[in-house]
Amino acid sequence: MEFKDYKDVYIFIEQRDGVLADISLELLGKGREIADKTHSKLIAFLLGSKIKGLTNVLVAGGADEVLFVDDACLEHYITEQYVQAAYHIISSKKPNIILIGATSIGRDLAPRLAARLHTGLTADCTKLEVEEDGSLFSTRPAFGGNLMATIISPDNRPQMSTVRPGVFKKLEQDSKRQGKIEEVKVQFDRNKFKVELVEVKKAEVSKKKIEDAKILVSGGRGVGKDNFPTLSVLAETIGPNTTVSGSRAVVDAKIIDQSRQVGQTGKTVHPDVYFALGISGAIQHVAGMEESEFIIAINKDKFAPIFSVADLGIVGDVNKIVPLLIDAIKDAKAKK
Ligand SMILES: Cc1cc2nc3c(=O)[nH]c(=O)nc-3n(C[C@H](O)[C@H](O)[C@H](O)COP(=O)(O)OP(=O)(O)OC[C@H]3O[C@@H](n4cnc5c(N)ncnc54)[C@H](O)[C@@H]3O)c2cc1C
After folding, report:
1. What is the pLDDT of residue 202?
2. Helix (H) or strand (E) run with residue 33 in it
3. Final residue of a domain: which of 159, 192, 225?
4. Within a domain: 10
5. Domain limits at 217?
C-alpha cells in the first residue's frame, strides 16, 4: 500500500437533531494538534439532514475544511445510510487518520467503515500521539484496565480510532478562523437500506450530565444505599454546577443510573473538584477521573488507593464527615 497517497486528519462530526455532540468538538481540538504536527489539514465531515448551519461552528472549532452530506435519509442515524455516506467521502479523499467519537453512534459506524475500507480500528482510545511522518499511536485500556495498550497500524491506511468522550478538550470557538466548506453529493444505493426508522422515542434526561459539572460529588460502595441521598444534599449545598456521580459498584447496586458512572466503562470526567467518597480507587475508576483539577477523597481505609491520586485525603467515616461538611458549607455561605 502506498502511504504517500493518504493525507490529512478527518474527524467524523456527530450530531443529533442538529445539535453537535461535544465529542466532535473535542476531536477537532485534538485533531488540530495532530494536523499541525504532521503539517496536514484538519477536515471535519458532517452527515445529516438540514445541517449546513453547523458548518461554521466546525471551522471556528479548528477545522480547515468541512465536507458535509445533506440528505433526508441521514436525518437520524441508521447504520447503512451513514456508512454509505462516510465511505463515499473517505474512499475518494484517502485520509491518513480518521477519528470518531466512541459514542453509541461512533461505536456502530467505525467498525463497519473500517471493514469496508479494509483497514484496522483502535476502539475506545484514551490517548493519541502522532509522529511527524503521520504514524498514529492510539492508546486504550486493555485486559480489564490493568494495562494500557498502544496500538499502531503499520500496514494499512487510513489509521482509524474511536476516542472516548471527555478525554480531550475543545478549542475556544474562534469566529475569525477561515475554512473551506463543501457540500458532497452521494449517490446512495437505496436498495441496501434494509432498516426503516418507524418512530423515535426519547428517554427523559432530567439531571445534569456528569461530564458538564464543575464539581462532582462521587460516591462508592462505602457510602451505602441508605446514605446516598446525603450526597445529593451535599451537591445542592455546594451550588448549581455540582452533581452526583459514582463508581460502578453503586451502579451495579442500582443506586445510581449508569449514565452517572465514572471510569473505564463509564464517563471520563475532569471537573474542577472531584469528591471521591467511599470509593476505593480501583484502576478502572481512576482512569475516568484522574484528570480532575482537585481531588478530595474520604475513605476509612488509610491505605485505599484513591489517596494516591487525591490532592486532599481525609481518613474517616464518610457518613459522619459528609453531614459535617454540609453544615460547614451552609455556615460559610450564611456568613457571606
Ligand atoms: C473491565 C472492568 C471495567 C470496570 N469499569 C469500572 C468503571 O468504569 N468505574 C468504576 O468505578 N469501576 C469499574 N470497574 C470496577 C472496579 O474494578 C471496582 O470494583 C469499583 O470501582 C469499586 O467501586 P467502589 O470503590 O465504590 O467499591 P469498593 O472497591 O468496594 O470500595 C469501597 C471503599 O469504601 C471504603 N469505605 C467503606 N465504608 C466506608 C465508610 N463508612 N467511610 C469511608 N469509607 C468507607 C472502603 O475502605 C473502600 O475503599 C470495572 C471493573 C472491570 C473488571
Report:
1. 77
2. helix 22-37
3. 192
4. yes
5. 210-335
Please state whether beta strands 159-163 and 180-183 pair in parallel, antiparallel, or not at all (unpaired): unpaired
**Same domain (yes/no): 181, 61:** yes
| Same domain membership, residue 214 and residue 188 | no
Q: Which of 259, 256, 304, 260 is nearest to 279 (CA)?
A: 304
* Domain presence at residue 198: no
Same domain, 148 and 40: yes
pLDDT bin (cut points 50, 70, 90) of residue 2 is confident
Task: Report helix, strand or coil for 292.
Answer: coil
Residue 200 lies inside a defined structural domain of this protein: no
pTM of the model: 0.68
What is the whole-number distance in angstroms between the Cα of residue 83 and the centre of ligand 1? 39
C-alpha cell at position 58: 466546525
Q: According to the model, what pLDDT value does residue 205 have?
A: 56
Residue 281 alpha carbon to ligand 1 centre in Å: 6
| pLDDT confidence tier of residue 200, bands split at 50, 70 and 90 | confident
CA of 3 to the centre of ligand 1 (A): 45
Is 253 exposed, middle or buried (CB count within 10 Å of its CB: 0-12, 13-18, 19+)?
A: middle
Question: Domains in the chain: how many in total?
Answer: 2
Name the residue among 91, 3, 109 with its Cα closest to residue 99.
109
Q: Looking at the structure, do residues 142 and 252 belong to the same domain, yes or no?
A: no
- Predicted confidence at residue 201, as pLDDT, reads 82
Return the pLDDT at 106: 97
